Amino acid sequence: MSGNFVQDNTTPNQENVEFNALLEKSQQSMLESKLQVARVGGYTKKSVEDFIAEMRQSVVQVKAQLERQILDLAAEKASATQECTVLRAQLKTAVDTLAARKTEKRQDGTEPSAAEQELIQARAENERLKSKLLEQQANAGDQKMYEELLKQKESELAQLSQTLAGYKDECGTLREKIDEMVSASFAADEEISALRQQKDNVETKYQKMLLQMEKANLELAEKKQDISDAEIRLEQKKQQLDELQSQLDQAKLYLEETRAQLELKDQQLAEIQARLESELQAREYWHMVTNELDEGRRTPEDWQEGISGEKLIESLYMQFSQLRDTVDYQKSIISEKESLLAQFKDLENETAALRQENENAKSVIASLKSSFEEVMEEMDEQSETLNRYISRSRKDRELLKTALNSRHKPLPDNPEQAAQQGSLPEDLEAADEDPPSEENAMPPISQILRFDNARKIIPLSDNDKGPAAEKPDEGKYNPLTKAADI
């Protein structure tokens, strides 16, 4: 009878292998279909909040499902306990009935003993008749009568011998039936003990699975919080990066304009320097003319022309002084621009550091995603294992009911025992009226968490841009504003 029950020989490693195979087939794009990518990079806040809300709702559903399964198992346990009590009572009644019937059969077995005594008496009577026949051999008239009486007694003796043999055969058959019924009752008791042990094992494994499920829920909440924090930090870093990139582009544009202005000033300065050299030559000529006038070798018209040339030289000298001041001012601007370039190089280094932090944040998100997938795989495996145990328990219950129907058949000469044994399958059916159906079995977590395929997780690349940076504070120091003022 014990061969009818399925033994659970699966190890935890085999269950993990089955779980991994199921996960690879059913949850390839489970998380990648949740978060919606923003237009400028990253993930939208609404998609993250929706994802967190759906995850919380799914956890609540899983918790409710587990509580419902616990209630079903508790009801099943109570039903099985009641069923075992009824079976024990019926088994005790059957054993008592079998013992009573065995006693009756033993009492019936005394009848062949009485027949043997009658046979012995018949034999003694036969011997007596034989002796009487010998005594009366002399009487020829009575000899024939005694011979016929002897034949009649011998016929009765043979008939009694056949009756005794029939009684012995019937007694042996009854003993065999009693032994079979006793062995069947012992086998049924062993089957009930095996079912009780399997039920206890299922309850123990179920409690372990509940503890693992609670631990997985806690880990899931921690992972979701880590993902939310990483998303916030990533958005802040991207905003800082966009702000620095905008400032760097403006500074580069302003430096290009400044370089063009400096080149124009250098060209103007070269032209003024050429004019100044020509004016210096004219001034030397003026000194020479002045010397000649002092010597009285020039006319008053030449003197008037020399005065106008001196005024021109003075005006050119003033322009040269202004241009020299302009050149000095431009040199100071160039030095300030060089300091700005150094500052912007530092900003570029900070930008590179921010990009590195962005890559680190992406790796953290990928790690969190992998951990979340592992947690979901474990939850699916646990629900699948629980359904398998429930199905096996239901199958064992059906096997027990079939075995009891086939073995506990009523004897035709004992109506009371037949009625008691006939109630065994009915009690089993009453205890199994509401078994856990396939619809009440726990579905996989991948079916509870219905993700939207329109959403997808896309890792951030180096060229991704975050949301538009906010305007910098006007009261804060800005090198671009200072350069423009200069």
From TrEMBL:
Keywords (A to Z) from UniProt: Coiled coil
GO molecular function: chromatin binding
Coiled coil: 119-282, 330-392
Compositionally biased region (Acidic residues): 426-437
Taxonomy, superkingdom: Bacteria
UniProt biased composition (Basic and acidic residues): 462-476
Gene Ontology cellular component list: chromatin; condensed chromosome; condensin complex
Region (Disordered): 404-486
PANTHER family cross-referenced by the UniProt entry: STRUCTURAL MAINTENANCE OF CHROMOSOMES PROTEIN 2
Name of the protein: Uncharacterized protein
